[in-house]
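User: My collaborator sent over this chain with a note saying "see what the structure looks like." That's all I know about it. Can you take a look?
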Amino acid sequence: MTFAPNNTQSNKEPLLEVVNLKTWFDTLAGTVRSVDGVSYQVYAGQTLGIVGESGCGKSVTALSILRLVPTPPARHSGQILFHKQNLLELPERDMRAIRGNQISMVFQEPMTSLNPVMSIGAQIAETIRLHQKMTQHQAIKRSLEMLRLVQIPEPERRINEYPHQLSGGMRQRVMIALALVCNPQILIADEPTTALDVTIQAQILALIKRLRIELGMGVILITHDLGVVAESCDRVAVMYAGKKVEEASVIDLFDQPLHPYTKALMSSMPSMNKHSKRLPEIPGMVPSPKELGKGCAFFARCSHSTLKCEQETPLLTDMGSDHVVACFAVTEEHV
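Assistant: Without extra context I'll predict from the sequence alone. Here is the result:
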């Protein structure tokens, strides 16, 4: 496994800063704390990976940034600072000018995100004309440029085709073209390689990496695949049950994971160097967000848990080198 960190992070201001974000849903069964106090920063030219099991709040965090979570039933608190402006306080009209223009998102499943009755070219051109002052002719020309940029073969023909006429890999490239057509400062990629074969996965990730470098974007890459994280990210935030439990540079995280959950994820990764017939698994299930109480949410699945873990919630602690972790067993050991 290779690591490709981008060492351009400096003392620059972050493009995006998420501060103590909470996205809670009020339901008949009670309050569901899907995102519960998450903070992170995104810098130009870098990729932040957000990793964790299904249901840990990764996608809800991203949708909250773009204000795509309906309110109600959801309610937000905290801050999402884009150029020091809190997106949670913006009027919807102002948010529409940012969404898809300055901050764009590649969704997990392109077939449900693309309009099945509009041609590829018409969909890209519509996005251009919504945010940019261009004629229809100029928008179509720009659409062709974007299809070339994302390396779709025969773009002059593909621009008139419909989503069902394209392969999964090409549909995902169209989604990337749609997301990048207005030259956004931040790209959010939510499981962009799900359901694609390994070769196409590698091509899509390489494409995102190349465009990030060429365009100087900040990228948030949401995934459950640690192999993708190792190849594509500069920093990694590990989420569990709506909270961030660890964050570090990609090299530090793989070299010295600290949280028991992170270690368990690492040990369950397939590897050419592992000779055992069965991979270790994490016992139990992720707790339901509406059943979370006091204490560490990983308590019941953790082999290092104590009574304190059940009764108190560990806070994120800086362990040095911008490596933070929320675990009593780790922080008390380093006291």
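A starting point for your reply to your collaborator: Residues 113-181 form one domain.
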